[in-house]
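ok so I'm stuck.
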Amino acid sequence: MTELGDVEESWPVVRSEDLHRDDWVMALRADWITPPETSPSHRDGQSFRRLVLEHPGAAVVLAVDDDDRVVCVSQYRHPAQRRFVELPAGLCDTDGEDPLEVAKRELQEEVLLSAEEWTHLTSTYSSPGISAERIHYYLARGLRDVSRGDFELEHEEADMRVFRVPFADLLAAVMDGRVTDAPVIIAVLMAHTRGLVGPRP
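replied:
not stuck anymore, here's the structure
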């Protein structure tokens, strides 16, 4: 039996075409790829097109206070036409920056907190059929108030609402479908199943 786990693999790219690219960190391109000869999809070197959303990745913070309350934000997301319950998070948009440092920065900028204890929960690929976006999840404990410094919230973030909710209530909302943001679900379930927050499952 093959060992269970993802494997690094790269199929040859015959050509690429930018469909959208500007000065933002994300871009959309089309790649024409050729399967290797060992693949059942190989047809005499014929290539096929796949869209690729270039994304630098992100860090998400499950910040839990001494009363087992989670720091959440409520934020409008235009593509989904919905206001979501989310966790503090941000893009890894500086080359070479450690995702943990991104998590620390976002916790400060979005909800004016720092944390003494950090635990890496997991790192996941959000939608590998179209993007190599990888999200890094952290549990933050030992919270304390800090200033935002000179950072200013803009656009949807300026309308963000910050609140705290008991971990058990957030878990229940995840399980019954009231909270549907994937990063929230992943962070909450990882912390719960590992016994890091709340009663052990």
